[in-house]
Amino acid sequence: MTIDINQFHGVFFDESDEHLQDMEQLLMTLDVDSPDPEELNSIFRAAHSIKGGSGIFGFDALMNLTHVMENLLDKARNQEIQVTADTVDVFLQTLDVLKDTLAAYKAQAELPQEEIDASIKVLEATLASASGEVSEEASEQCADAELTNTSNDIEGFGFFDDEEPAQETQAENQTEEIEGFGLFDDEKENKSQDQANVEANAELSSQSQQSSGAQALKADEGFGFYEPESLPVKPAINDAAPSSLKQPIVKPVKPKPKAAAKEAASIRVDTNKIDAMVNLVGELVITQSMLSNVGQEVEGQVGERLQLAIDELQRNTREIQESVMSMRMLPVNMTFNRFPRVVRDLSSKLGKKVDLVIQGGNTEIDKSLIEKLVDPLTHLVRNSIDHGIESPEKRLESGKSENGTVILSAEQKGSSIIIGIIDDGAGLNKARILEKATQNGLPVTPDMPDSEIWQLIFQAGFSTAAEVTDVSGRGVGMDVVRRNIESIGGRIEIESSQGEGSAFYIHLPLTLAIVDGMCVSVGEQIFVIPLLNVIESFQPTTSQVKTLGNDKVLWIRDQYWPLVSLTQLMQVDDGITEPTKGIVVLLESSKKRYGVLVDSLVGQQQVVIKSLEQHYKKVAGIAGATIMGDGKVAMILDADSVASNCMNIPNEEVSL
């Protein structure tokens, strides 16, 4: 019996991606003044695992580069050399080359041999220099070798003073630490250590998502909506020699060490299999709903027994659904943890001092959403640093701390996940946005609300620049950022105060699969309102219905509530438009609290969300569709989108 070793390539690539991410995270938080021996050991073991696996599969270029890196790490962990900020920079640049090399092997593409050779020379020169064995040849290698970081350009929009080019970087999806191919012993002095790793590395973890390989960060754009800076930006430092590398500026939060715990046995499962299971569970939910409808038509003792069986099926279906959905939920830190490196490299390149703060990283979100968040978040974070945060000199002149702050936050609110990218920089430049909008022929007025002005930056072609640099280049526009977010059922909002900073908030659905909903009727149509948005329902009296201008509002508990008629909003025939004759459902969205007028309440049930955008354009107020138990199609309301229809009517509290 022969074994096809190629079938293990996928496992090796996935685990190598994870090892590279673990190494990067550990290096970013490493205290060079007092390095933690265990952290250095973990970095060494990850490199050793990659080297061993690449040797088994015949990936010689990857093995050779990792072997040289491993030698330097071995000296560091044995305290034979002093770890400095320059050493860490060399390691990080080497990781970038390793990611490119791994991606080339995965895609069966041409290897970046020049980068590999240059990286090996720098590592050898660093090792010789740290060991006090600097030769003339090593010095020349160190001076001549450069590591090339693959990066995409950023679209420049021509609204800023000229700045020096900014350095791009690469980052991968942060995954749970898995020890995989560390089963090989290539060095006698490490034999006992490697043997100890064999059992620890035999288990594969299913908690990590399928990595996309060495995915180059796409560049964001400078959008020209911030206050310009007249101060020059510090020149870039691209020399690969250790002596020319800078101390990182960004200050990522270093996690507290956790006590070792016995990990539960786990296996690696293809995400396609989980997706297929989610789809089957969705069909099971629809079938259970159909049975419930049939059970209501059966009377007598048989009907009672059937209803009991259906109730049990409903409970079991819900448990299965919750279990399967939990497999798809991942902490948003899987995306957030790539940004300390992004902030570090870009802020250092621009000569700025930036503190990155991550909040709510444990908030869980559907895996499919996490994968599609990477590019929009990367654009927005880079934009905040490049054009939002001022230079240290400019900040001091404005009475601010010389260190700027970028906050990445995530929180669950109702049926939505809200992700924030917040900076304390210069803020958006309203006058410049209006000027550019006028040049582009967009309908604008000086008295437009700020919220509408900020949305202008999402117009296609709004930010075209006359000049291109490696920082502000031919990237993807903000219109594409918004389009990517809307493609997953989300939306983006902006808040900004000139001189104080800006905040971009991305609103996303908690899941794209199954939700609990309240079914309501409007005319002959059935609509589903996500239960997480529902506060209460009631039939209003005449005294509770007020008129404010051309709009009707509700006076409930000493507060005005905007009222939206679904009959009018959805243009349904024969629906109720008089509030006292229908039912009002009070909702709370991430934007606003308001009421919707419907004909009647039908019931509550789980529904499977089906996307409409494959066949129709995005419909305002609609999040998707579902199949009811009787086979009819019902629309699922988007509470945030419906709230946009009453944004000009404030919730106003009145004290009596």
UniProtKB/TrEMBL annotation:
<dbReference type="GO" id="GO:0005737">
    <property type="term" value="C:cytoplasm"/>
</dbReference>
<protein>
    <recommendedName>
        <fullName>Chemotaxis protein CheA</fullName>
        <ecNumber>2.7.13.3</ecNumber>
    </recommendedName>
</protein>
<dbReference type="GO" id="GO:0005524">
    <property type="term" value="F:ATP binding"/>
</dbReference>
<dbReference type="Pfam" id="PF01584">
    <property type="entry name" value="CheW"/>
</dbReference>
<keyword id="KW-0547">Nucleotide-binding</keyword>
<keyword id="KW-0808">Transferase</keyword>
<dbReference type="InterPro" id="IPR051315">
    <property type="entry name" value="Bact_Chemotaxis_CheA"/>
</dbReference>
<feature type="region of interest" description="Disordered">
    <location>
        <begin position="188"/>
        <end position="216"/>
    </location>
</feature>
<dbReference type="InterPro" id="IPR036890">
    <property type="entry name" value="HATPase_C_sf"/>
</dbReference>
<feature type="domain" description="HPt">
    <location>
        <begin position="1"/>
        <end position="105"/>
    </location>
</feature>
<dbReference type="GO" id="GO:0000155">
    <property type="term" value="F:phosphorelay sensor kinase activity"/>
</dbReference>
<dbReference type="InterPro" id="IPR002545">
    <property type="entry name" value="CheW-lke_dom"/>
</dbReference>
<dbReference type="InterPro" id="IPR003594">
    <property type="entry name" value="HATPase_dom"/>
</dbReference>
<feature type="domain" description="Histidine kinase">
    <location>
        <begin position="304"/>
        <end position="512"/>
    </location>
</feature>
<feature type="domain" description="CheW-like">
    <location>
        <begin position="514"/>
        <end position="648"/>
    </location>
</feature>
<dbReference type="InterPro" id="IPR008207">
    <property type="entry name" value="Sig_transdc_His_kin_Hpt_dom"/>
</dbReference>
<keyword id="KW-0418">Kinase</keyword>
<keyword id="KW-0597">Phosphoprotein</keyword>
<keyword id="KW-0067">ATP-binding</keyword>
<dbReference type="Pfam" id="PF02895">
    <property type="entry name" value="H-kinase_dim"/>
</dbReference>
<dbReference type="GO" id="GO:0006935">
    <property type="term" value="P:chemotaxis"/>
</dbReference>
<comment type="function">
    <text>Involved in the transmission of sensory signals from the chemoreceptors to the flagellar motors. CheA is autophosphorylated; it can transfer its phosphate group to either CheB or CheY.</text>
</comment>
<dbReference type="InterPro" id="IPR004358">
    <property type="entry name" value="Sig_transdc_His_kin-like_C"/>
</dbReference>
<dbReference type="InterPro" id="IPR005467">
    <property type="entry name" value="His_kinase_dom"/>
</dbReference>
<dbReference type="Pfam" id="PF01627">
    <property type="entry name" value="Hpt"/>
</dbReference>
<keyword id="KW-0145">Chemotaxis</keyword>
<dbReference type="Pfam" id="PF02518">
    <property type="entry name" value="HATPase_c"/>
</dbReference>
<dbReference type="InterPro" id="IPR036097">
    <property type="entry name" value="HisK_dim/P_sf"/>
</dbReference>
<feature type="modified residue" description="Phosphohistidine">
    <location>
        <position position="48"/>
    </location>
</feature>
<dbReference type="InterPro" id="IPR037006">
    <property type="entry name" value="CheA-like_homodim_sf"/>
</dbReference>
<keyword id="KW-0902">Two-component regulatory system</keyword>
<dbReference type="InterPro" id="IPR036061">
    <property type="entry name" value="CheW-like_dom_sf"/>
</dbReference>
<dbReference type="InterPro" id="IPR036641">
    <property type="entry name" value="HPT_dom_sf"/>
</dbReference>
<dbReference type="InterPro" id="IPR004105">
    <property type="entry name" value="CheA-like_dim"/>
</dbReference>
